[in-house]
Specification:
4-stranded mixed sheet; Butyryl-CoA Dehydrogenase, subunit A, domain 3; Butyryl-CoA Dehydrogenase, subunit A, domain 2; 393 residues; Butyryl-Coa Dehydrogenase, subunit A, domain 1; 4-stranded antiparallel sheet; 3 domains; alpha+beta
Length: 393
Amino acid sequence: MDFKFTPEEEDFRREVQDFLAQELPHDWLGCYLGEAQTDEEWAFSRAMTRKLADKGWLVIAWPEAWGGQHNQIKQLILMEEIYTREAPGFDIVGATMFGPILLQHGSEAQKQQHLPGIARGEVVWCQGFSEPEAGSDLASLRTRCEEQGDHWVINGQKVWTSNSHRSDWIFILARSSPDLPKHRGISLLLADMKTPGITVRPLVNMGEMTSFSEVFLDNVRVPKDNLVGEKNNGWNIATATLGFERSSIHRMGSAWSCLNRLIRYVRETRRDSRPSGHELLVRHKLADLAIEAEIGRLFAYRVASMQRKGLSPGHLTSVSRLFGAELQQHVAQVGMEILGLYGQLGLGSHGAVLKGRIQLEYLASVAATISAGTAEMQRNIIATRGLGMADVK
């Protein structure tokens, strides 16, 4: 089995590396998974998005007819380099989650209306899935949508909706047939964030990250044409959406970035006149992490390779997502052990080692690990053992 990239793909990797070296400030410290926290970071992130779009890289895996190159491997390389450098600007929600779903399930009118804006880096989308009582068991969501004339009327609440306070549009999972089994009575709808009845309230988590919000939907009226696919088929579309998200390499890249920071730290830090990296236990822990990170990288490579061949990765996307989240947590835990009490200091704290990056990685990775253990992942695994979605209630 050959794990090598082609010469053309390696040339592309070097082109991406040169681009990031040119565009990022010389003192760039990185941002967690590319998520902007301040208005200044957001402005820089949007500028990077437009530059990626101008180079034809933002939707590089899309079909050529919609501005892409139909090249999943180049997208993998691009994302690996971006997230290893912790650079902002790549549009995970629009380019790798919502766009592919619209290409598969959207009407021609929906594609014409929404895809060009994503490809040009002009329109920001957010994902209205999680709810206060429907996180891991997403199919238990309570947000409802009812048909009234030429419109759908949506009522409910979404939570942990990344960048919803900065988004132009949202795609929403809502219960359209309450009498059906919970997985079968859900639909996917699109809404302009300026629609009357949509209220966004920012949330600040333990890691002082401000990219999350909760979204309230109070008699929000959207045209019937904003239904994606068929009524009550939203769950199948949602699991496909999460499959696109989980086939990404961004968590592996973030873990590699944090691990590289730790390796540099132990090389440069001296204890009892010797570099910390000479301590046998530290070396073994970092070596174990490097092996684990390489396994995670190969998981992502395998998924992308299957997608390029037109094969469905199936449960492998969920396995890769869970592995990546736990890898981040393992890196953060070892970082806490190496840094000691200093590792608990957050971003901007006086005396914080590695600029507080370990504390941020730890808090975020715990949340990521929890969210990765979803019932959807279990359903995918069950399906590979001979049971279909109809057998899962």
